[in-house]
Amino acid sequence: MRIRGKRKEEECMRFQTKMIVGYTILMFALALFLGIEFSRIEVKTQEEREKNNLQITANQITAQMEERLGRMEASMNYVLSNSMIRDGIMILGKKEKERVDNRLESEARANIKKEINTDFVTSSCYRMIIFNPNGDIFTTYNALSGRVIESIDMETLPYLAEAAKRNGKPVIVSAHEDVWGYQTRPEVYSLVKAVQGYRAGWIETQALTKELSEFQVSQEETDYMLFADDAGVLFSSREELQKEDYQEILAQPGNKVVKDAEHKQLVAKASSKKYGITVLCMESMKDLWDYSYNKFTPFLIALLFFIVSMLFVVALSQILTKPLRQLRTVMTNTKLDNLSSQVLIDTPNDEIEALSVSYQELLERLKKAIVKEKQLVTLSLQAQFDSLQAQVNPHFMYNVLNIISARGIANGDDSIYEMCGSLAAMLRYSTSNLSRMATIAEDVEYLNQYFYLLKVRYEHKLEYSVQIAPEIQGQLIPKVTLQQIVENSINHGFQNSAGKMRVEISGWQEGEYWYVRIHDNGQGFEEDTLRHLEEKMEQTRNKILENKDNMQLEIGGLGLINTYARCLLLYNGDIIFDLRNTADGAEVTIGGYIRPNNGG
Length: 600
Description:
Layout: H1 2-81, H2 83-93, H3 102-116, H4 119-124, E1 127-131, E2 137-139, H5 159-165, E3 171-177, E4 187-194, E5 202-208, E6 223-228, E7 232-236, H6 247-251, E8 256-260, E9 265-272, E10 277-284, H7 286-291, H8 297-332, H9 350-410, H10 414-431, E11 437-439, H11 440-458, E12 462-468, E13 476-478, H12 481-493, E14 501-510, E15 513-520, H13 527-546, H14 551-554, H15 559-570, E16 575-582, E17 585-593
Parallel strand pairs: 12-14
Antiparallel strand pairs: 1-2, 1-5, 3-4, 4-5, 6-7, 6-10, 8-9, 9-10, 11-13, 14-15, 15-17, 16-17
Helix pairs in contact: 1-8, 2-3, 9-10, 10-11, 12-15, 13-15
């Protein structure tokens, strides 16, 4: 007994250990999930934040670039709007076509040189040059730009032809060496516009490329590139950045931020339709973690959550296992001869107390179940006997009908033979256990046997017709459905009638449903009877839908209610079963949805 008690104690300890291990695994998985999920959310949030910042930076650079180009274009328009400069350009342009007075030519040169060197123009650009095909060159002067060359080969300036096509609109020239410089030739980008007029020439405004590196960006690690639609790369913050690496992104419409998986970057795109420039801002995905100063915080929270949870589980398991050990002892000592003993466990835990009460109730139910078991053995034997007897009865009826049929043939009475044949067919169909369902065509065949027997009884007093559309003859209905409805019509519809009895059965398809209508010219349903049937049908429907297990025990018998119940079960509640009176009798209409697998 001591060894056995020790083993039980070890089993209880194993339960406590299993509970701790189970909760440990659960808490560890939950803490790990929370840590990973928090980290994912943190990275996702940081990524969205950086996307927004990167797009803002791209938009800001685009705006700054538009502002620079706007100042350059404004200085060009300012110069061209000066009448003295404009007239001078026109005079110098036509001197090759017609003779121009030397004084007038000298005056034109002097005016251009004077008017071009205004504070507005010189502060708006690195250098402005006005030149024409005749070799005339005029430029602004300042300490930064210095002298320019005295002549240049126009063929070395490929962008002039494009400017001539623009009809006075400026052309952006990408970063290039300053071809006009005499002593220094820094890298510049330009706006070039063709001056309208005969050999009027061009006006070019330059700006230093290095000034584009002065744009304000949100992070020092952010790289950016500027592109002109017709001129290629205007500026690149690093020489390693190449336009070919971003062709796919440049080809995408609109302003957006995309992940460049190949280069592990976030790339923001912004465009200016006014000048046809595009800005790309790039930031390394690696920097996302560097910016997340609290990237380890989620894991620390998850670890703390895990430690606190484990301390709670260990303490809770100690409290819970004590009353469970007590209950286990009581259950072990329970035998058949002490089922009536009271089970009382002193515990402050309501759940354990409820468990002990439930165990006491279980013992009481077990005691009652033992008594009922003896009764069920007797009932089971009786049910088996009744089942065997039910199988013998139809076989006995077949033999009797065959004997009567044989006697009819021996006496030369064919009607007895035919009646016995019809009755035997009906009995075989209705008592067959192979299937509880039949097609409409099979049930109509059974109904014709029934009508034959009715005609023998009522002779010319009974008239009937059956017209079933071929497309619904394959639909399933419970066996003997049509016969039960016709039988109800014959038995109750003509009790007070001495005239002809007419029964018409018609079937058709309408939409996704089939219908069969049984109409008679009898006296119809009495109002109280019809109302009672409708209430009974509603009660039956509720019982079937709420508790299908007890259906066969509750319904039982035959008749209209039984027929309705069986149809309700077959079609799972989606059944049409309509009872009504007509001007010349009564009719019952049944129907259901078309089942395509039935054939017919």
